[in-house]
Amino acid sequence: MQFSERWLRSFVDPPLASEELARLLTMSGVEVETCVPVAPPFTGVVVGQVLSVQRHPNADRLTVCSVNAGAGGPLTVVCGAPNVAAGMKAPVAMVGANLPGGLEIKAASMRGVESRGMLCSARELGLSDDHSGLLALPADAQVGRDVREVLALDDRVFTLKLTPNRADCLSVLGVAREVSALTRTKLQAPEILPVPAASDATFPVKISDPRGCGRFAGRVIRGVDAGAATPAWMRERLERAGQRSISALVDVTNYVMLELGRPLHVYDLDKLSGGIDVRFGRKGERVKLLNDMTVDVDETVLCITDRSGPIGLGGIMGGDSTKAELTTRNIFLESAFFYPEAVAGRARRYNFASDASHRFERGVDFDNNVAGIERATRLILEVCGGEAGRTVDTVAKLPERKPVRMRVARAHRIIGVPVPAAEMADIFGRLGLAHTRDGEAFVVTPPSYRFDIEIEEDLVEEVARVHGFERIPARPPRAPVAMRPQRETHRSAHALRQRLVDADYQEAINFSFVDPQWETDFAGEPNPIRVLNPIASQMAVMRSTLFGSLVANVAYNVARQAPRIRIFEVGRVYLRDPGVREGEQDVAGIRQPTRLGAIAYGPALEEQWGIPDKKRAVDFYDLKADVEALLAPRIARYEPAPHPALHPARSAWVTLDGTPVGWLGELHPRWQQKYGLPLPAALFELDVQALSQVDLPRYREVSKYPPVVRDRAMEFDERLPAARILEEIERNRPPVVREIRLFDFYRGKGVERGRKSLAFRVVMQDTARTLTDAEADAAMAQLTELLAAKFGAKLRT
What residues pair up with 361 in beta bridges, in sequence order? Predict the structure, then answer.
């Protein structure tokens, strides 16, 4: 919303400077985004009248003008403007004048002719970029008077940044009501008197669907001069409100909309066929609008129709077929009330917006329809002439303004300060909110222009903002601080994040609502949990895995030429679980565990001279090492298992103490191709609650005696997982064996088909003495016998 300060002060003129007024509005919740002068500062420019124009004797494109500036005799001014003419009035900068940009006017010789001043264009005064000619001033402008006074340039333009609930401030009258309430200054709204009907001319109107249109007022005006010039004062106010002057009839409707917040529309009466019917559209109907767009309408779009079909979109824009033009002689003036829910979103559906839709979808005063008609009628008759018929007001169904109850004690708790009840009553009175007392509560009936007052908290907000947010002390919250014990068996999500950051990963934060296709691809979920009111079609379901978001992150970065990517996320997933009951942070039937997911793409290591295979892509085992570092000191087991998102031969369960806690694997080639990844990606997803549990550290004596290290290679069935072998050794190892590591795997020549060779490094050590060779040999023999008995293993020869 944009308007000039002079226009506002014609309604209410508080004793405040412009900056103070802007701050007061902002602090009351009506944010003033900018408050700027309509023109830059300049001095010494007055109204001049050109008495005569003669060609310059020494220049083809210059003229020598005699100018009456109101003081002393005529001035000789050399001018190069093409529109200069005898008799016109234009700004003249006197000698000594200071213009925008630091230009000072001095007497000067122009090709042998002395010039004592300068006739000015709009650009030279900083009013616009127009420098095609002199700025023509009104014929009744007083010669010698300061141009700033004549053009009212000592004015400022306010631009409001309104929240959607404050539709009542989308007019100068609405803002004036606010200023009046905040400053206790009397409101001087324009007096709107009925215009007597000069004829009985009417036009039939029917409201077929009161769900969309609750009221429709109209008036016939015959014999207008649509080509009449818009008055300068009206053009000035419109231009400073950001509206371009179009024609007298359109300018009047725009003016009333800005002044009273009442959108109007003018039809060419002679182009209407039959009566007007307000109804929802029908499939197959089309209408060409004033912006030259032709749109299809359906049962959800409110239309203004006549016998020919739709002639406009209700509350959005009129149609081209019935528009008033400069040749129009008879008009029908419309002032309707359309329900916000019948207008909201329709203009955006057609990819455009209008001033009317901006207001109607937020809520327009349904009690000023006739006032808007009367105000516009009087202005049209003054500017365009004509003969007005009587106003016909058709009321179908108007919104019910339900009383809202506000408890005084409740307001005190929300605001945080005890605003006296007497002050609350005063605030409601100043805001024009009709109210009564009901014990320790107020019962307020919202006026027709306040669609934002529906619940108790709305009234509390009104009290707080008029009382003054700056008067509410800023007190930091106080709470008892208690030291909480830090359990050594618990690890925070922050600690897990830090481990991954140390492993060269970067954290991502993604939306929990995702594309339904991701759930099908990466979770194998054809029926995910759907969002009732999604903000976009690609955010329509709640995710049950982090894989889709992580793959999308990688695809986004790959498209921007990122060669090596490591990303992780800690976030919730949403799973159906009938056992979950409704709670403060729970939704019945939906489990919301927190997961930690990560993805790696590109080279396994950053390029450097010491790596022989610089282009080796990341694989399953690279991420397995990261998972082991993340879980340490706990040791996980990895069991092959299929997952919809992962490679069928390179995916595994991650289990801790026999309980599955997540997945690890490489991305399925199908999804790698579908989501545009040139190289394979490896990823994992683990349950944060399981990761947060760690074992209590235990003391282990460090031996001061040298270790004995032996290697042993044995053949096993190739289907036997190495993890089972290591687990068995760990359970039944000899006391002197401190550590066993698998360091080699072989399958091929020298090993039977269906068998594999695993080589273990065994570290033996005693804390009391140095082991003998015999003791070491006995321990190795015991291990060999254990593996042979348990798994049918035999020594590799």
Answer: none
What is the Cα–Cα distance from 752 to 716, expressed in whole angstroms?
10
Q: In which residue are the tokens 């039937």 written?
A: 589
Using DSSP bridges, classify how beta strands 63-68 and 265-268 pair: parallel, antiparallel or unpaired. Answer: unpaired
Distances (CA, A) of 76 to 51, 80, 88, 136: 10, 13, 15, 19
Specify the DSSP element, H or E, that contains 278.
Answer: strand 276-280
Is residue 120 within 8 A of residue 90, CB to CB? The reply is: yes
**What per-residue confidence (pLDDT) applies to 700?**
83
| Sheet-wide strand order for 317-318 | 205-207, 276-280, 302-306, 309-313, 317-318
Residues 6+ apart with CB under 8 A from 526: 520
d(C-alpha 164, C-alpha 673), whole Å = 45
User: What pLDDT, on a 0 to 100 scale, did the predictor assign at position 695?
Assistant: 83
Q: Are 490 and 634 in contact (CB under 8 A)?
A: no
DSSP string, 420-480: -HHHHHHHHHHTT-EEEE-SSEEEEE--TT-TT--SHHHHHHHHHHHH-GGGS--------
Q: How far apart are CA 209 and CA 282, in angstroms?
A: 13
**C-alpha neighbours within 13 Å on the C-beta side of residue 128:** 10
Residue with tokens 């408050």: 35
Across 510-526, average pLDDT? 93
How would residue 37 be classed by pLDDT, with cut points 50, 70 and 90? very high
The contacts of residue 540 (CB under 8 Å, 6+ apart) are: 513, 515, 516, 530, 531, 534
CA angle 443, 446, 451 (to 5 degrees): 135
Which value, in Å, is the radius of gyration of the alpha carbons in the chain?
41
With beta carbons less than 8 A apart as the criterion, state whether 553 and 567 touch.
yes
Strand partners, 96: none
pLDDT of 477 over the 80 cut: no
From 264-278, 448-462, 477-491, the region with the lowest mean pLDDT: 477-491
Q: How many residues does the chain have?
A: 797
CB atoms within 10 A of CB 586: 12
CB atoms near residue 574 (< 10 Å): 19
Contact yes or no for 18/35 (Cβ under 8 A): yes
DSSP alpha helices (H): ranges in 468-546? Answer: 493-502, 516-523
Positive or negative, the CA dihedral 596, 602, 603, 608 is: negative
Per-residue model confidence (pLDDT) at position 723? 87
Cβ 684 vs Cβ 663: under 8 Å? yes
Distance between CA 775 and CA 736 in Å, rounded? 9
pLDDT recorded at residue 248: 95
Residue 186 has pLDDT above 80, yes or no: yes
The pTM score is 0.67
Between the CA of residue 187 and those of 14, 181, 712, 770, what are the distances in Å?
A: 10, 9, 99, 102
Half-sphere exposure of 119 (CA within 13 A, CB side): 33
Q: What's the average model confidence in pLDDT over 212-217?
A: 95
Q: What is the pLDDT of residues 370-420, one digit of tens each?
A: 999 999 999 999 999 999 999 999 999 999 999 999 999 999 999 989 999
3-class DSSP assignment, residue 606 = coil
3-state secondary structure of 319: strand
pLDDT at 571: 95
* Calpha distance 24→16 (Å, rounded): 10
145 touches 22 (CB < 8 A): no
pLDDT for residue 482 is more than 90: no
> Comparing C-alpha atoms, which of 711, 791, 717 is closest to residue 757?
717
Q: Are strands 506-507 and 565-572 parallel, antiparallel or unpaired?
A: parallel
Is residue 565 a contact partner of residue 556, using CB atoms and an 8 Å limit?
no
Average pLDDT over every residue of 231-245: 91
Q: How many Å apart are CA 404 and CA 457, to the nearest integer?
A: 10
Report the pLDDT value the prediction gives residue 73, as an integer from 0 to 100. Answer: 83
pLDDT beyond 90 at 93: yes
